[in-house]
Design brief:
mainly alpha, Arc Repressor Mutant, subunit A, Tetracycline Repressor, domain 2, 11 helices, 0% strand, flat
Amino acid sequence: MVVYAGQGDARRSMALLWRAPGSADVRTGPGPKPGLSVDMIVEAAIAIADAEGMAALSMRAVGERLGRTAMALYTYVPSKSELVDVMHDRVLAELPAGYDLEDGWRAALTSWARDTWAFYLRHPWVLQVSQARPVLGPNEYGMLETVVRILHETGLEAGVLRRVVGTLIHFVRGAAQTIAETRQAPKATGVSDEDWWYARSAVLMEVATDFAERFPMVTWLERQGAFRVQDETVPYLEQEAREVFEVGLAILFDGIEAAMARAAL
């Protein structure tokens, strides 16, 4: 399920994201004080998405969680589209805003990548919000500011640095998405990872008796133990994804250092 941000009214959405004048929760005039706020609505929506995924998110579900009707929410948030924008930006506020550069950019960027990876696993629904159209909220820009500040230490030219930022964000999201989907698969399919692999690997050997001849390099990897993982107490696919993340991160950083060396020539 892919959700595109920025599908609601642009002015209302941006006003909510940036808390522009006229978007505040405070209402004046006679009558009782409002029992809801944008913050309450957004927090309830995030709780639903964290627990049940984006498919369970609706204005009605948020209203029920708050003990209200969906109609009661529209005074504060025009529709689900604007709500998704604000939700996405709100959870990004959890990410650290700065990293110690005393030990160099590589150590700081490693910490950033691990923190961001862990963030995505806490809120896997964020991975369903497409990056094709950014939310353009303050915390989204804050995340970008943090990464650029770290990479600025490399001395890379601005255009190259910008592409490196994109590469890193795509890599971290992709690595986290693999684990998130691995965790969700048993519930979504009703079949455990162990049962799934056992059933299909057994059939594969029956239907592909010439597997080793057709795929000699894959067979070589298997015979060299390349598919073994270090921690067998963790589900195989999750452990493999963790190892891919760490190895891939080191290789990306090596590439950044190579780019720095070329730029210095």
